[in-house]
Model the fold of this input.
Amino acid sequence: MPLSPLELLKIDHLLTEDERDIAATVRSFVDRRVKPQVADWYDRGEIDLGLVKEAGSLGLLGMHLTGYGCAGTTAVCYGLACLELEAGDSGVRSLVSVQGSLAMFAIWKFGSEEQKQTWLPRMAAGEALGCFGLTEPDFGSNPAGMRTHAVRDGDDWVLNGTKMWITNGSAADVAVVWAQTDPDRPGKGIRGFVVPTDTPGFSAPKITKKLSLRASITSELILTDVRLPADAVLPEVEGLRGPLSCLNEARFGIVFGALGAARDCLETTLAYAATREVFDRSLGGYQLTQAKLADMALELQKGFLLALHLGRLKDDHRLDPQQISLGKLNNTREAIAIARTCRTILGANGITGEYPIMRHANNLESVLTYEGTSEVHQLVIGQALTGENAFS
Done:
């Protein structure tokens, strides 16, 4: 009997029973709630926000955090959940990972007790949605150059600036916004602010006409004289260490998540090749097709072993940022290559919405470059290897 793409190495045997149960639960949720509808969401450029409360009821939001209503699972369990979510769609995984690994993690790691009590239980339950405002129109890979700034006015802070490409932005109840508070210290005076989105001066117009991540809300954040009380600032961090540590949490989820999109492409392609007849025999019976399938299965399994190794390191508190870069660089690069190769096997059928291949491929174009482009991760790895900073 044909094997599934991850069975050749008996990878399931490397997981604990709890890990397999969580993966199966999330896969069932995706099969029931996401896959039947996601092609229509993608076509319309929207996502059903009812997923937020449903994900909260399953304990998926901030699931790797402890306390405040969070599930407190392992990093590997969180990674497996990301894989299963992205097998549905990258936009669904983005919704969950931005909520938990960016917005919630920033408050959980660096917030005051009052900020944690105010926001985290509601966010874990899916009763409040968060976003993370770091990237700007002119500053993506170089966040130290951000122009969004915050100045003191009496006991208050006043924020002005613009953020771009913000997942969940126009639907969020709270935004974690990073701003420069000391223009004489670029990159050093950056502080995080917890900004309720109903604060006067805050707006989040939705970005439209996207050709990737269409089943996801992407927005611009505009802050015009947004006045916040002194206790809106995240008290436990200053400088780029804050937002970059949050990005590492989210990048870890991508290391697993990208494999979910690749697996769904490969599973779809295996089923297609078994039934599609070309010259009176199945497409899967041709040597060139089997060579493609073998190479893709190999890279998928290697990527999973890498992700699982990084997850075990993270659970053992031994994971370094450059190791996350290794995982993000490899697994997003291989996932998009798998999606593109699967498309060639499906031929013209591969570009239709009847199959998920082109949707995954388009989404992975974004996953490849957001939260650190491949070039940025290459430089992180290069610096680790040589000790030389080649960023500038």
Notes: The two ends are 54 Å apart (CA to CA). The chain has three domains: 11-124, 130-238, 242-386. The chain has eleven helices and nine strands. Strands lie at 130-133, 149-153, 156-167, 174-180, 190-196, 202-203, 218-228, 277-278, 281-282.
